[in-house]
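---------- Forwarded message ----------

FYI, see the SRR1-like domain-containing protein record below. Original note from H. follows.
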Amino acid sequence: MAGNPQSRPINPFPLSATNRVGISGSEWSDHLEEWLYGHQAFKPGSYLPDGQPAHGRLRYIWLQILDVTRIIMDDRTCDNPTGLYGNLGPVRKSLRAAVKKAGPITKAVCMGLGPIRYRSLFNYNFDYVQQCGVFFALCQMIEEKQDMQLGTLPVFFQEPAFELEDRWILERIGRQTIVRVPAANDLMNVQSFVYAPHFPSNLLFNTICRPGFEPELLFTNTFHTGDLGSVGYAITDIYLSKVYWTRDSTVNQEAIDMYDAAKRFLQTHEGTVYWGVYVLEENNQPLAKLLRAAFSSSSFYVRRHGAVSQSDSKRPVKTLEAKVLLPNLWSCLPKLLSLDFDQTLDLTLRSRTAKR
């Protein structure tokens, strides 16, 4: 039967004497073999009696994800600082610190997780498990901070590279919500937590960090440490592509816009590098190596207290007398001078309330 996963599905649109537009038998066979080669989890002979594909391995991957979350959230896993999870204390502390700094969050969106790339029982994207487990741990921390019942924070996934295996793990087994591009744009706003570990930097500022919609808490590639990192590479690529195409070294507007967007975002958000190696390397070198690769260039970005969003910046200016402003100005001047972005100081005080 066509619906039996153990059998080979039949050609739904065969060529025949009465149907001259369709798929020939040989073409269908080639298409089917190619599809099954790319989706080893669903090939005949890989199903358990209960209908689980990949010999049940996809269900096991989901349990692995939950286990990462459990390890991070369970205080008992770091009771022994010399044990396997000897580094878990500092890692958990950094996660909780990011959540603590953030204001109210009403939803969580995972962007750019990447596909599981399942090929066999022991050949799939192990970063996926760690990244997803950390995402769920952060969602749970947000729920605890906001006195929410666990599992009630709305969570969404969007990844155009997701395949059937990803849907099976997250949607079929995990009961998570996967939305299609570009639905997540309507979900991300100033009260959202966006987890984007592998999100393309050249798309960051016209999707996740659109002016007026910058998330309250963002986890993505590091670009705040003086060097713009992957964002700098994206800007460089835009500029050099223009230079070598036109032979004109004038900085193009697209590169300027991305640079200004990054600079503006760092004015309103504070960055903190995340180091996610929660095991002692001498006790589990393969896992430590995997964790370093998964989180080597990741950071949290939390809205600065009192930061103004692009939409708020259009509000009327409220001018105060100098005698009221100056004491406050001089008291915070050392802090302002330490910032790595341009700040214009004058005798006006703008009414700036972080939009949450």
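H. also flagged this: Residues 174 and 187 are 20 Å apart (CA to CA).
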